[in-house]
Design goal:
This is Cytochrome c, mono-and diheme variants. GO terms for molecular function: electron transfer activity; heme binding; metal ion binding. It holds the Pfam family Cytochrom_C. It comes from Paracoccus solventivorans. The structure is a single chain. The protein has about 140 residues and is mainly α. It has a single domain, classed as Cytochrome c-like domain (Cytochrome Bc1 Complex, Chain D, domain 2, Orthogonal Bundle), CATH 1.10.760. About 60% of the residues lie in helices and about 0% in strands. Bound molecules: heme C (HEC).
Length: about 140
Amino acid sequence: MRARAKWLLAAAFACVAVWAGWTYSRSAELRHGAELYAEHCANCHGAQLEGQPDWQIADEGGVLPAPPHDESGHTWHHDDAMLTDYIRRGGQAVLDDMGVRMTSGMPAFGEVLEEGDIAAILAFIKSSWPDRIRAVQAERNGG
Ligand code: HEC
C-alpha cells in the first residue's frame, strides 16, 4: 500500500512537471511572438491587433488597408497553411497564385522571419481569440 502511494505521488509530481514545462515553453513562445509582432506587424495591423481604420475600404489605388487580427477581422477564417504562406511570401504572391486580381499591401517576411518565428506570431495572434473562434479556426486546419 505504501509503495503504491509513493508511486502515485511520483506520478502526480511527474504530471505537474510536464504541465509546468509545457506551460513555460508555451508562454515563452507567446512572448517571442508578441515581441516579433510589435516589431514587424503592429505598425500596420495595430498594437492591439485592431487593424487600420476602415480596413474594408480600398484606397484610390485599389489597395486595402491592413485588417485586424483579433476576432473582428478575418484572419481566423483561414487555415494555418494559408496564413503562414501569406506572411512568408507576402499578399501579392498568394493573390496572384489564386488568380485574384488585386494589389496587396501585405509585405513578404520570408527573408526576415524563420518558420518558428511565424509560428510564434500566429500563436500570439490566436491567443487573443476567444475559445469559440480558436476552435473554428482549428477545424479549418483539419482538427
Ligand atoms: C506595410 C503594412 C503591413 C505590415 C508591416 C504587415 N502587414 Fe499584414 N497585411 C497588410 C495589408 C494591407 C493586408 C491586407 C491586404 C491583403 O490581404 O493582401 C495584410 C494582410 C495580412 C494577412 C492576411 C489577411 C488576414 O486574413 O488576416 C495576414 C495573415 C497578415 N497580414 C499578417 C501579418 C503579419 C504576421 C505581419 C508581421 C510579421 C504583417 N502582416 C505585417 C499590411 C501589412
